[in-house]
Amino acid sequence: MAPEVSVLVEGGKAAAGAALGAALGPLGVNVAQVVVQINEHTKQFAGMKVPVLVKVDAATRAFTLEVGRPPTAALLLKEAGKEKGSGKSKGEVIGDVSMDAVRKIAEAKGADLQGRSDEERVNQVLGTAVSMGLTVDGADPRGLLTTRLAARGPR
Which residue range forms the structural domain that includes residue 12? Predict the structure, then answer.
């Protein structure tokens, strides 16, 4: 089994620092090449943390990258133009996102979310918005969840 190194890097700004260098150095991989490829593959996620899995072939010292998607919370913050979520989600609203943005995030995350249908994935993103202190189209996302669940009816 090939050794794997899992890291969370800021999009387009990976560095051969302590975490990455210490993990990859003993495997004999050119850390600078890994960093260049990670930055190339993650530049579209600038300003967001992105999970990256580096798989190393111990025999050839070749590597492959698997770049994940940023967390739902990071995508919501980007849409809201905020740095961080609320520490008091039930009482403090930090920003607003559109329902179109919620749908776009649910679609982009796809199978990373637990829902089996697009509607269930949208509900998950709405739930994340609740916990972060975000409104959706100016409304409390909890109200949108209740409305969406009631409209769906029993399973």
Answer: 4-67
Whether residue 103 sits in one domain with residue 60: no
Amino acid at 55: K
Average pLDDT, the chain: 86
Domain identity same for 51 and 82: no
Quote the pTM value. 0.69
Cα angle 33-49-143, degrees, rounded to a multiple of 5: 155
Choose among 50, 87, 44, 80: nearest CA to 66: 50
31-47 pLDDT, tens digit per residue, is 999 999 999 998 888 88
* Strand order across the 63-67 sheet: 4-10, 49-56, 63-67
